Amino acid sequence: MTEAPHRYTAAMADSIEQHWQQRWDAEGTFAAVNPTGPLSDGTPPADLPEKTFIMDMFPYPSGKGLHVGHPLGYIATDVVARHHRMLGRNVLYTMGYDAFGLPAEQYAIATGTHPRITTEENVATMGRQLHRLGLSHDPRRSFATTDPEFMKWTQWIFLRIFDSWYDPDAENADGIVGRARPVSELRDGLHSGAIDPIALADRLNIELPAGWAGRSADEVRAADDAELEELVGAFRLAYVSDTSVNWCPGLGTVLANEEVTAEGRSERGNFPVFKRRLRQWNMRITAYADRLIDDLDRMDWPESVRSMQRNWIGRSHGAQIAFPVQGLAGTPDPNGTPDPVEGASPTFEVFTTRADTLFGATFCVLSPEHPLLADVDALPADWPSDVPASWTDGAASPREAVAAYQARAAATGEEERTGEDRAKTGVFTGLTAINPMDGRELPVFTADYVLMGYGTGAIMAVPAEDERDFDFATAYELPVIRTVQPPEDFPGGAWTGDGVKINSANAELDLNGMDKDEAKTRATEYVTEKGFGTARTTYRLRDWLFSRQRYWGEPFPIVYDVEQPEVPIALPTQMLPIELPEVTDFSPRTFDPLDADTEPQTPLSRAEDWVEVELDLGEGPRRYRRETNTMPNWAGSSWYELRYIDPTDTEQLVDPVNEQYWLGPRTPGGVGGVDLYVGGVEHAVLHLLYARFWHKVLFDRGDVSSQEPFHRLFNQGYIQAYAYTDARGVYVPAEEVVAEADGTFTYHGEPVTQEYGKMGKSLKNSVAPDDMYAEYGADTLRVYEMSMGPLDLSRPWETRAVVGSQRFLQRLWRLVVDEETGALLVSEDEAPLPTKQAVHRTIDGVTRDMAEMQFNTAISKLIELVNHLTKALAGTGSSPREALEPLVLMVAPFAPHIAEELWSRLGHEQSLARESYPVADPQLVKADAVTCVVQIKGKVRHKVEVDPEISEADLEALVMAEPRVQQLIDGQTVRKVIVRAPKVVNIVV
């Protein structure tokens, strides 16, 4: 059978789609207008329409290109962007590329191909695929984070943060107290004595450089410039310090926590990872912990994401308690007492939210990385005579036991160490601590379930009220003292619920009989009064490790004087960007995978001609060494929304007028930000937290008017697909799997197991959008993905189901175009009333769905309208224009190419991209009639069809005049008539 020559097929779709994409490009259809600068069209800012700024979390340009799961969020944002243009908004919508990253560097190491080459190829591939999808991006605003002009401003922001310190007492906007200030103001305050560095360090939980802790204000003022600069450096928001890191000698690089498996091995290569203290760059995000939590309630974000960020930051109110230690010799007191002698008692500090449970502490635990255990030779040389064998781990002395345990802990990942189901292990250090609440001696253990990165790296163990401590106490036969009375039916173990206090008294304090809140308050007051503790708020959040020992990342705009190699020096703005040198070896030096004592040697460190540089930084030409670490790939994604606003500005980060227009607060007390930010929930913490931190620093320094980067956040679900594993558990290509007649599946003749999972290259179940474009067209793919289900839920991909969306578009096409002749099937006659009502009820419903991003139900309503018009067409041979044009406009955000083509064939010369969205006529939306129930003595006795807008008085009169109602109440006295128009009339007789 010959196919109709004017049928909407994949080939026709391809022709239509490419035509309209070329026209959009040529006419700049989707250009967003800035109030000022090169991207302004001269319209006075006050006359610009209301704006909408829409963003996707921008992608990493993978060499594999896109699969059909990737565009889900991109299509959704495009639907919103197109809809808002039709509402008359000025829409900023574009796409950039997060182009620095490990995959390109790995490929470079393996093949010798420069990562810039593969990255640019990948960007081109992804850009082609996205363009072919018909996304209405403003191409003038696109960039990659590897572009020198973008990198320049990434480095500028780093220098801005480097030039800032956090003043917790400075006034800010909206009643906020605390903000970033220029380092010059800190330097002036230290010089004048207006700022007490010791008090400030305590407020910000900053460790001062050696020798500063005991200095008086006069000594601070008397410090020379070099000394003062060392002190200033400790307070910078971007700073260098000896930091506990994940060191992987087998890869020759430091790894972020997310790059380490639960088994404590590298995700790439499966090499052992060790905890080491190395000199690294950090960002002091902890200074912003309170604002990062408190401002969550000022944004339109999913509560699940807010909860994840609150938990990640982990704000806790409690008390910091000092425990004196006995038995440690030859190690400096961590609180500043120099050179203790044999038998002296240094202290370690423990943070607890429950100071009232000090009476139940029966032992203490230090992290294997705790400073008190750094020198194992300071531990006792021999075990006490009565030490239980289970405490020693079979070692001859505490020194041997702790050293061996530290080595094991260093090779174990944090996730594994803190796993709830993992057996608790540890060894006795030979030390004892004094419980300051009642003077009892407590044995001090080291155990890997206590992490140096959380709290103080030390805990007081209260096994009666903590499950982990109870498990440890059980394993090592340690005593359990209850300080909270469990219920009578409690079976035993750790009781973590509420109850009255018991066993909680000393000569001066009696908490017995109190409830938890009263006891906590009184105990915190007591430890503060007695001087062995202070009320404190702590956070789980740790400063952001900002160094990577890699090549393919942003270079730091930092150099070091060869005579002062420990002091970082900021390069002036006019020297930016600092670009990467050309090298042939992109890999860091690797070492024996088990040699934890090695040091990183970065790829940049070998580029001596680049590292060693002569510069004039104001004191004449001098020799400097560049920083040879690079920034993490989080850097570019922490500010890219600002570059979208002003992508051509070479003189400033962003023009204040443009930033205020696109991001500034719209209501008093608002935080501003991007109007809609769409991306996966996997970025709920790290990316979003880092971006918020950078933005708040820029706000504090006056560079932006908005306090938050993203006002509304929407997390789309995932597209899932069947995946298949062979007998080894290895994934095989899904497209090569054969479904057998008996319901089983085979791959190359061998049986495989079917499972369901997120579409992606790791499961080998990807479907390329290029295949869908070729077989169905981009519009069909768009409609299918938007109709699969609610946008925020994951949904199953089924290639065979895509044809349903194609048939919908084919029916739409046939309403306008005769498939045989290509003639227009449009009538200028007035539409019948049922058709008018169907059109306007669809407009009303789709408009509400669009506002809620309920695209699947909007498409369902459009399908119903197409079906209605198809039936009407069958009887008349044409469709009324007044029905077709609103339909085409409503379809346009979902299937823009076919909508543009039909709009053109309907006689319109201009693109519909900025045509007004249809508005429903309320008179045509309302129902013709509704059923009113008539109740007599509380029972339904009659029904009547009435106007949905009938008044209560008219409804009562109509019902009481009904012959059947008169018959039912005959001879009875009507006491009251209760009317709930238009649905119910209740007659009381």
What topology does this entry show?
Blueprint: H1 10-27, E1 51-56, H2 71-86, E2 90-93, H3 102-111, H4 115-132, H5 148-162, E3 164-171, E4 177-182, H6 183-192, H7 197-204, H8 217-221, H9 225-233, E5 238-248, E6 253-255, E7 274-283, H10 289-294, H11 303-313, E8 316-326, E9 347-352, E10 363-366, H12 398-410, H13 414-417, E11 427-434, E12 441-446, E13 458-461, H14 467-475, H15 516-530, E14 533-538, E15 544-545, E16 558-561, E17 564-570, H16 608-611, E18 612-616, E19 621-626, H17 634-637, H18 640-645, H19 656-663, E20 676-679, H20 686-700, E21 713-715, E22 719-725, E23 731-732, E24 737-739, E25 745-747, E26 750-758, H21 769-775, H22 778-787, E27 795-796, H23 802-816, E28 826-827, H24 833-851, H25 855-876, E29 879-880, H26 881-891, H27 896-905, H28 922-925, E30 930-936, E31 939-946, H29 952-960, H30 963-968, E32 976-980, E33 984-988
Parallel strand pairs: 1-2, 1-20, 10-12, 20-21, 22-27, 28-29, 30-33
Antiparallel strand pairs: 3-4, 5-6, 5-7, 7-15, 8-9, 8-11, 8-14, 10-13, 11-12, 16-17, 16-19, 18-19, 22-23, 22-26, 24-25, 25-26, 30-31, 32-33
Helix pairs in contact: 1-27, 3-4, 21-22, 22-23, 23-25, 24-25, 24-26, 25-26, 26-27
